[in-house]
Structures are given as C-alpha cells and as structure tokens.
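Question: Now follow the chain.
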Amino acid sequence: MSTIEAPGYSLHSGTYTVEAAPKTSHRNLVVVWVACIALVAAGLVALSGALAKPSARFVCPPDCGTPPMGKPVTINPRFTAADGSFSVAYPVEGAAYKVTKNADSVSAELLVGDGGTMRLFSVPAAGRTPQDIANELVKQTFPDTKTAYEIPNAMVGYQHGYGMAADCWPQGATASYSRMRVIVMVAIKNGLALVAGAAGPYHEFGPDFGSGKPSPVGLQLALDMGKYVNSFSWRGDPPR
C-alpha cells in the first residue's frame, strides 16, 4: 500500500488526519485585553492633558481674592443718617419696642421685661479716641456713674473700638429701681464715631435669668443688642 505524506496531513489508503490548530490560552487573552485598555486609557489621559489649560496660580498674600458675596439678607429695618454718613439696623417697632428716629440716631425703648433704652448714633471723633468718647458720653448722660468693667475686644460695625459697662443709682421719688446698668461701645472710622449705648435696670444673670449662664453684663436689653452693634456700617463700606 502506498503512502503519500505532506506537511500537515498524511494519506493512508484514501484517508487522512489533520493536526489540531494551536489554541490561545485564557491568560494570554486577558493580558492582551489589559494591554489594549491601558493603551487606550493612556491615550485619553494624554489627550486630556494636551487640551486642558493650566489653572491660574495665585500668591497669597497679596492675591488672596475675596469670599463669595451674595445679596445680604435683611431681617430688621435699617436706619440711614440724614447725611448718609452711616447706617444701622434697628428693632422692628411693635409689641416689644417703641422706636424713635432723629437725623443722626435711632432709639428703641424696650417695653417688655425689665425695660430699658438702646440708642444707636454717631458723633464726630474730633481727634478723640473711642475710650475718650465713651467716658465723655457716660459722664454727660449719667454723671454719678461708677465703671463696672471694660468690654474686652469691643467691636462696632466690625471695627475695633472700646466698650465699657458702668453703674449708677438714680435718686428721687420717681426712680423705680435702685441700680442701673449702662453699656457704651464706640468705634471710629474716617473721623466718625459710631456709638451703641444701652441703659436699664441691673439684673444679675444666672440659671433663672438672661442667657442661663453667669454673665457680667447684667442688663436684659444686652441680650438683643449684639446684632445691632455690628450691623453698623460707615459710608462706603461694602454690603455684608
């Protein structure tokens, strides 16, 4: 019987066999796919880097920028002096306060609780310091006062200034209380002093009165005074 053989097959009496085709392993397929994905990803990263613009570089200070500012939210009405030199928020007139306005001041009389009066106004600095102005105002309004303490880090309209608390004992048959607490805070900018003052019956703070915590302020009106003190703004100040 004759045999004919050729590469890849053999023929014996009219029959032949074919060698199995080589197979690629799963491991090789995974390696190829990972390599392709990595190549595509590298190309995309390179393209993104080529198209992206470098971010601006700032040196702070001095280029510190400014915080994002929106339109201020107004809760309380706002008083503006007749000459436009300053403005300040003041309490809403109603059951709690009686409000009186003048050309350069706004006053609010507390009608509930211990009562008392708050006045927000301006005076020319005239070369005086905030401490000088505070002492002069207290002596003019309440001559027989005794300084209780100085307010540390006092600010008016977010401007550093001076603050003090003083006590006086009104005399006369019309006096309905024996001890009165006076608080004055002053700050100066552009030659204009802005002043926040409050006076009313002294009432010691504690668990049953005031903020519930011990405090040297001793004046019920002071609990509501803070938001008006730093609402002051001088002419030209940015909105806040």
